[in-house]
């Protein structure tokens, strides 16, 4: 695998680190392919994922040096989104396990959007989220226009996207955009602890929870009620449900396996 992405396999979970610190972990095509490969591997042999960045920043989005309009007559940014960023977001959202993003510094442009595509964001108090697209005449991509609007509402989404003003992690937590903002010395350990807990939890139930919450972004109440009934039916057939109820009634700690219903 390319060294633009580092993979550290733990007990039931995997830590994936974006590793171009000299470029604030901005993405080139090699890094895209490496991250996709790492996530494919996690889908096969892990029960939770932690995504973070090396160095001082989480991710500055697309490496604009690879998309310099001065070097060619026409830059097809639609191709870049369709071929690289959109599939990456879909892959993260489709993973049947929790994906936690530990934001260690600046998350700008597609880097901010990438963090919000994850199921949970735990950020350092020194982290900032910047919709830097406006500074170069672009729109929030990588699902950013969707995520921002659904997380903070259209008024704040427009303000962030149009001004490109940095949003400190503490304010992002206040606005409900991220899960937690923690001291710089504590946030990564807390993120790792959370992912380790997820890796020992009811993985199938987590996957169905992801499906339900994602569907709620566009469903009507009636459609959501129907979906809940179907997903609850599936969860009720899972070994983790049987183990969870048994452990509760026996007053012991459950030993979840994450297995799917047969």
UniProtKB/TrEMBL annotation:
What does the record give under GO molecular function? isomerase activity
Q: Name one GO biological process term.
A: phenylacetate catabolic process
For this UniProt record, the keywords arranged alphabetically read as follows: Isomerase
Q: What is its EC number?
A: 5.3.3.18
Q: Which family does it belong to?
A: Belongs to the enoyl-CoA hydratase/isomerase family.
User: PANTHER family this protein is in?
Assistant: EG:BACN32G11.4 PROTEIN, ENOYL-COA HYDRATASE
- The protein in question is named 2-(1,2-epoxy-1,2-dihydrophenyl)acetyl-CoA isomerase
What is the organism of origin for this protein? Answer: Maritimibacter harenae
